[in-house]
Every structure is written in C-alpha cells, then in structure tokens.
Amino acid sequence: MTVPLALPPNIEPKTFFEFVNEVTALVEIENIRIVTSTDELDDGSYLNQPRTHDPHHILDKDYFLASAVVCPRSVPDVQALVVTANKYKIPLWPTSIGRNSGYGGAAPRLRGSVVIDLGKHMRRILDVNVEGAYAVVEPGVTFSDLHEYLVEHNLRDRLWIDVPDLGGGSVLGNTVERGVGYTPYGGGWARINWCKQQ
Ligand SMILES: Cc1cc2nc3c(=O)[nH]c(=O)nc-3n(C[C@H](O)[C@H](O)[C@H](O)COP(=O)(O)OP(=O)(O)OC[C@H]3O[C@@H](n4cnc5c(N)ncnc54)[C@H](O)[C@@H]3O)c2cc1C
C-alpha cells in the first residue's frame, strides 16, 4: 500500500494502513481510494466534482488535500466508518454532492482527513410528509431531485421547496451550511422546511 500524499496530523503510516485495512473489510463499503500523487488531482467539472481537493484553490492545489476518499452505501456503513475512524483517531470530512464551488467544495479543511463521499450512493428520498411539510432525505438528494419527486407525485400545489440558486447541490449540505432560498420562509436555518402554499 502506498503512503498518501497527505497523512492526517500526528498519524503514522502504519496506523493509517491499519485503519484502511479495517475499513476495506467492512461489508458494503467500497474500497477506499488513497490519494498518493498530485497527478491524481483532477479538477473535474460542475457535474463531476473532485472529492480529493478544492478545484478552485487559492493556495496550492494540494493544500486542502484528502488522504483518502470513501463512499459508504448505507447508514450502518457510515456508523462503522465513524467507529473505526474514532478507534484510530483519523479525522473525517463528510461531503454530500461537493458542489459548493468557490467555497472549497468537498475539500477537507484539515489536510489529510479522510473524505466521506455521502452523496455518491446515498441518494434516496425516504419520506415526504405533506401535512408536516418536511422531507427525510439521504445526503445525495439534490434540490432538483426533490422538485422532480413533487412533480411526479403531483404535490406541487401542496408543497414548495425553498431552493437556493444551486439546484444541483444537496438539501443536506445546504441545510448544515444554513443556506437561504427564495421563499418567504427562506431563512438561513430551514432548508428542508418547505413552504406550504396558500
Ligand atoms: C453558483 C452557486 C450558487 C449558490 N447559491 C446559493 C443560494 O442562493 N443560497 C444558498 O443558501 N446557497 C447557495 N450556494 C451554496 C450551495 O447551494 C450549497 O452550499 C450547496 O447546496 C451545498 O450542497 P453540496 O452537496 O454541494 O455541499 P458540499 O459541497 O458537499 O458540502 C458543503 C459543506 O457542508 C458540509 N457537509 C455536506 N454534507 C454534509 C453532511 N451530510 N454531513 C455533514 N456535513 C456535510 C461539507 O463538509 C462542506 O463543508 C450556491 C453555490 C454555488 C456554487
């Protein structure tokens, strides 16, 4: 196994590899991708954002750099990943769609963190409650996905999503960032509280 370009602070390669082996053995979790060279740092595109670094970097391209990227498929995957990271004291950096372009995207603020790409596989809309005007979604659900769901289920006359400019960003990422949309209730705290139309 090759040592990553950026190890987490105070973590020896041996400890990092023990963590990687344990994570790789977890059922359902894709093989973890270790970032070993700046040649791998593809800036991608709007539809294909990099998870390794900030494509709009102001400092060096490898300044905010992940040691590895892992893509869980389920809540138990995420739980097992967090438990394992805690055991080895490996810092994690969760990201959903990674489209927060210009604000760092999916790049970890702590160099050498392991990026958890929650948006790649976890893309289900679990519940839409019309009376309560709320939705339960996985991290990879975008505002556009939710809109399409409302259209498909003929709910557009009942619920109104408070969408920011970036319809292709995740509902969850925008909520944790205290995003703001364009409805009367578009406060910076309530991304998945929709507006009921009169
Ligand atoms: C052109 C443009 C226009 C925009 N306009 C608006 C606007 O009008 N209103 C507005 O509010 N925002 C706006 N934004 C910001 C953008 O909408 C949100 O930041 C976006 O919705 C975040 O979604 P994402 O999945 O891309 O986030 P990501 O890039 O994946 O993550 C953003 C941040 O949230 C954290 N995060 C993401 N998912 C999780 C998670 N599951 N658990 C814990 N932490 C997580 C990440 O660590 C990161 O710090 C705009 C951005 C762009 C590029």
TrEMBL record:
Domain FAD-binding PCMH-type: 62-198
UniProt xrefs under InterPro entries: FAD-bd_PCMH, FAD-bd_PCMH-like_sf, FAD-bd_PCMH_sub1, FAD-bd_PCMH_sub2, Oxid_FAD_bind_N
Protein name: FAD-binding PCMH-type domain-containing protein
Xref: PANTHER family: ARYL-ALCOHOL OXIDASE VANILLYL-ALCOHOL OXIDASE (AFU_ORTHOLOGUE AFUA_3G09500)-RELATED, D-LACTATE DEHYDROGENASE
GO molecular function terms noted in the UniProt entry: D-lactate dehydrogenase (cytochrome) activity; D-lactate dehydrogenase (NAD+) activity; FAD binding
One GO CC term, this protein: mitochondrion
Organism for this UniProt entry: Penicillium olsonii
Signal sequence coordinates: none
GO biological process assignments: lactate catabolic process
